[in-house]
Structures
1.
Amino acid sequence: MLSAQSDVQVDTPEVRVTEWRLAPGSATGRHVHEMDYVIVPVTAGEMTIVAPSGERSKAQLAVGKSYFRKAGVEHDVLNETSSEIVFLEVELKP
Amino acid sequence: MLSAQSDVQVDTPEVRVTEWRLAPGSATGRHVHEMDYVIVPVTAGEMTIVAPSGERSKAQLAVGKSYFRKAGVEHDVLNETSSEIVFLEVELKP
């Protein structure tokens, strides 16, 4: 599977901001969020979330509509649509 | 002068995310940033920044290109263009 592309925009003692670009058919790979984080969608889109159990769910992204998650989340994130998905991940350093 | 519109999207013990919408001719009003913050532009645009001294400068926003600032910044932010400017402010709670 194609790998999502990431670009670190900000990396300070307080925060790290990473831009993620998921081409159609790509995935981030399974990962654990080590820090609390905010997602800011840059594009609209539908992500496929795969839990460690293998359970699949869909998550809708709307441009500029952010959401917060606590550290500890583990998942893979896939783009099974025909459009690129772009979002920023803002990780809050402890 | 018109007032910028704000909408709090996330407010947890860790972080607050506020969407700011600056119509043409509007301003946030002079304010002090009490927390470190990240700005995520949702639109492109040019902001006019007015320092407490009255000095004016321009800041270019590019969609999805974030930047970080430490607490303590004091300024007014104006939209002197003919297009709406939208960005998210992600404030890091101490």
2.
Amino acid sequence: MEFESLKGFRDFYADEESARREVFDTIRETARSHGFDEVSAPSLEPLGLYEVKSGEEIVNETYSFEDKGGRDVTMTPELTPSLVRMYAAREQEMSKPVRWFASPKLWRYEQPQSGRLREFYQPNFDIFGAPGVEADAEAIATADAVLSNLGLTDEYELRVSHRGVVRAVVSSLGVDGETATAVHRTIDKSDRLNDDEVRERLVDAGLDDDGVETVLSLTSLDGWGATDELLGVIDGDEQREAVERLRALDEALEGYGVDTVFDPSVVRGMDYYTGVVFECFDTDGDLRAVFGGGRYDTLVEEFGGPSTPAVGFGIGDATLELLMRSADIWPAEETSVDYYVAVIGDVRETATRVARSLRDDGEEVRVNVRDGRSFGSQLEHADAVGATKTVIVGERDLADGEVTVKDMRTGEQEQRPVEGLV
Amino acid sequence: MEFESLKGFRDFYADEESARREVFDTIRETARSHGFDEVSAPSLEPLGLYEVKSGEEIVNETYSFEDKGGRDVTMTPELTPSLVRMYAAREQEMSKPVRWFASPKLWRYEQPQSGRLREFYQPNFDIFGAPGVEADAEAIATADAVLSNLGLTDEYELRVSHRGVVRAVVSSLGVDGETATAVHRTIDKSDRLNDDEVRERLVDAGLDDDGVETVLSLTSLDGWGATDELLGVIDGDEQREAVERLRALDEALEGYGVDTVFDPSVVRGMDYYTGVVFECFDTDGDLRAVFGGGRYDTLVEEFGGPSTPAVGFGIGDATLELLMRSADIWPAEETSVDYYVAVIGDVRETATRVARSLRDDGEEVRVNVRDGRSFGSQLEHADAVGATKTVIVGERDLADGEVTVKDMRTGEQEQRPVEGLV
């Protein structure tokens, strides 16, 4: 009987896992170097956790089911609700700000496509308990450091905005409910639409000509120079505060050497963002967001905790892989081992001692576990598993108290006293 | 609105995750040092995958459901079926033996209790394509190395047997079907039952007096010396082969310096084991198995692959934690960071540059992201997050081009030129 894995789910064989792990190790090291403490949350949560703020969209696209005890549960489609639940439960014991990193597997029941799988990893960084622009900057600088530590340079672009910008526009239009949602969504998608398409969607949503022109003036803005023009489109307290915050952010990020672009079409789909929002795209504009995040200052309270400012972001592993591959910096997909121990003849006990001793010295060692295998076949295997060196333990050499160490790259061989190796 | 995690699922806060990660890093390093390549499999698989060989028991105790596309799926309750599926799919491309390590989360819908949760981690080691006792020994020696690398010494005991031993007894009794299954289970549980309880179960299963006495003679055996007596209980080809294999295993393990005990009550619940089986228990006998495994030479073929000998084992994370805690070697549950950067006054830009520079040097750095926080409160926070040193960036020091570096353990402070740090 033959089986296949589910569509949208990946098997990671040793070669692929080795590359993936190298990338995730760099992400984890960057989290550590930026003072984020790792945490982990369950992979299954009560469905109710996602009904608070994630919007219906996410609930419809999850692996949700009733468990054997009759509970409605969901395989975690995103991490933030779990983190907020955890934070709210123990916030009194923790010294603030709290900086959390986590690197969970997540699941969404969506149509699998390039850069979008049903099972994926999403490294996640959050800072709880710091309201200021310094925390926004620290979060964005950490995201930037992840990409530059992975070897990316000018292949990506960081675009930032503020929810206040869109809120002010929607409020100036005097719309709410479904119309407001449609305006939100259209602005969010405007980077991938032409003006006519934007206009059509806005008219469909019920906006009048003035309203349509206001939104088009907004979505046509791009770059830090445009923040003045933004105040020309909508002037008001909320808009001015948003612009002020964004300018302070740009200045704070200069200290980190991080460049960003102001882009009012950055909205982020999640309902829970409240302030600064940011996304990172490939410079060519071919891919989905490499990462995205923002400030969510009301969510902890909505989950039963005290009023807590928070800012965070998540990295999409599939898009990151596509970007690194297109930049030709995805790690080599190959396995390796320091030593292969070949066994020739009745020398099993010595071979075992050699392997033990090398392992005790911290070496990675594969020892032949198939007695009677030919020498040639053992060397081929050593090569296939990526051994740097092969220690050949053979009856004849051992009679002189020696083994042969072969460098698998150069082919050079040297005799070494077995006592030196055990 | 307040939420709790599901019963049997754990939140790992930073302190706890730090300890858990230290343990898992050691397990991963041991896998590497023993030449196992890491792989990873999906967390959701078609239900059919578990119906092949795992027995009904496991299917009844899983998180199984119908996905939105009408497929019967299961959150993976064990890893072996996925690995065997993966091996069968690509075995032709791989040089044998294949050694795989994986460290997945797994899920079972069981009653949560000490050492048994509904969500758990299970490091898993497998060798495919090596039929001999050398591979059995390598697997068991790797399991032993995991525990000794974690710092365990005489707190645990490795017990081994062979499925042929039980098979021979069952076959000598001339029973099959449910009776055979009941005999299997009773032998498996006999370590935790007294003779009267064993007798009762066997009589209930339908065994006659002679049969009962045969099984009791088997379960009373213990230790390598008992392998001769074993042949006194049942003599036959299968039994002799099993005893021969076990003796060869004991000898092979001597080369690794690994002691084991022969214990015919080691059966392992999984239906798919075919030969040598082993379990590791705490010496006090209070806990469930720390790890267990064995040889499963027919499973790959049953999954559509070619006939492939295989041996492997899985480690139970919850029991391992209980054992390490009782031995007082569970890692300290605390977070740490190399540097905290305190910000006093209007020095944000310099503080950012100091943090960047330390991070570029590979240090783990938390920088204050709350402007205006008092000096005392910053030092308290540095202490709470486990900072080794605090760099105090203050307006007054900076006027002289200096910062203060405080050793958080000794309290010693020294002035350092800021240029040396940036």
3.
Amino acid sequence: MGLDHAAIKPHEQMAERFDGKLTAVNALIAERMASRHAPRIPQVTAHLVEAGGKRLRPMLTLAAADLSGYVGDHDVRLAATVEFIHTATLLHDDVVDESAQRRGRATANLLWDNKSSVLVGDYLFSRAFQLMVETGSLRVLDILANASATIAEGEVLQLTAARDLATTEDIYLQVVRGKTAALFSAATEVGGVIAAAPEVQTRALFDYGDALGIGFQIVDDLLDFRGDTAATGKNIGDDFRERKLTLPIIKAVAAADATERAFWQRTIEKGDQRDGDLEQAIALMHAHRTLDATQADALAWIARAKDALAPLPDHPVRQMLADLADYVVARVS
Amino acid sequence: MGLDHAAIKPHEQMAERFDGKLTAVNALIAERMASRHAPRIPQVTAHLVEAGGKRLRPMLTLAAADLSGYVGDHDVRLAATVEFIHTATLLHDDVVDESAQRRGRATANLLWDNKSSVLVGDYLFSRAFQLMVETGSLRVLDILANASATIAEGEVLQLTAARDLATTEDIYLQVVRGKTAALFSAATEVGGVIAAAPEVQTRALFDYGDALGIGFQIVDDLLDFRGDTAATGKNIGDDFRERKLTLPIIKAVAAADATERAFWQRTIEKGDQRDGDLEQAIALMHAHRTLDATQADALAWIARAKDALAPLPDHPVRQMLADLADYVVARVS
């Protein structure tokens, strides 16, 4: 690996390795997103699917298949499948509930699109389903059906746990498994399955994806309080304003005295937020060192992800997956 | 068939024949609807799934399997599958768009449930997907994946065609195939597929379900203008108030002179509806005999459904399916 590569981020290195496959994935996505009867579909999805995201999930599938010695093109189908499922969940996440309107955040345009978001998401999910059927692997279908159920269950759980100070770290973990890790682990596992990799390897690929997904989401939640807006594109405090019980807040609530608890009840449970509350919330997290503790949790999951790689063959992609895990957590280091 | 049976409606006769199977379907639905992590899920779905609807779609699957000589319990899994898909689409249809709010129809409670409706619908869809994977039949998965895509595409098409006077009878037919017929035809076809019925029979079962579904939806749209509210539970004119381009209106628009066209533009395209407009709309449909023409179309589809049954074996269930087709259209005769 030359000097030039040292400065290249892990996902960019992977994108370079899988350049041809990713081009095929993008072409397949464009082909299957099209609808003869309903031109609105590509309109709604274009900004999501074509925006040239990092294609992290599809790359995980391509990497797992490559590492497992796969030869064929089902990896491309499955990479497109996981991207469609991801995009469908994004669309469904966009659906606005009353609380969002009550806080005056939703625009008329957003609302008008509620129904489009739902139905186009359903369309993408159906397209994903068709793509996986084309692989002819019942095991792949089983994995992705189970992942889909975990995703949906996690989303509902997040909805019911929202604004509830009784939310525990266990519940948070279940939510995170649903909203992020289930698709990561399915993406890596199916890559091994289509390559007919030994059971110990498909299990290792699952474990890697699971731990990476959890670490990734914890970091994301941490960045909401600690991130550099310019670098991450996220606004500091969005989760606080949306009254989401993420790990740094759950830990702060657990450590709260009576006065602090009243603060969390007012701001998170009742949603009565005033100027200076975000600063106060962050000050409480610093006082109880919950941001550091959350970062330690993320690091532990990333370590688990890397440990999971041990049973996998010695292969350049294995190192890329390890580097990717480090990179995920480096965002907040 | 005894005298007592003569008074029994076809779907009740089928429910009697499939009593044991339907009990198993209901038990399976209750079992798979449950969520260890998210108790809101059964809460949201209970009123839909347990309300004891006619279970028309599950019965079509049971009937098709029985008629094809199927022995086993995959018919029960697939019957629950189609009911879950049906319920998921109902939940997603419930999502409110801005226009509904603008007209002041949506209550706060309805809105609060937007997000629940979406996510619980996704959960049911995933559960359906798991159930069909359990049948181990890639052909069944292919049929239901294609049906799901047709359903989603039809829903998006309906959204974009809404309030558009340029909507043709062809577009209406595509929408109806998506919103109703795709699941009917998949329900009957998979019943034949799991029984390993000859190709000509699975094709006949598909054709029957397709034509029955189209006839069923046309009758439903007709009842919106011609029904007896007490008998159907539908309010006359709901579709008109929601500015839906259903067949009786499409035919009336096609026959409209300049003054009538202005009326449709004002009431449907602009949504400016006043007292007496519904009566005027119905008067125009009578003037152009579009309700009669719509009924004739429904009768033609029902005749096609019955004709499709010809290649199927001589079996008591075949007559029940023919009677069911007649019953569907008898609702408006």
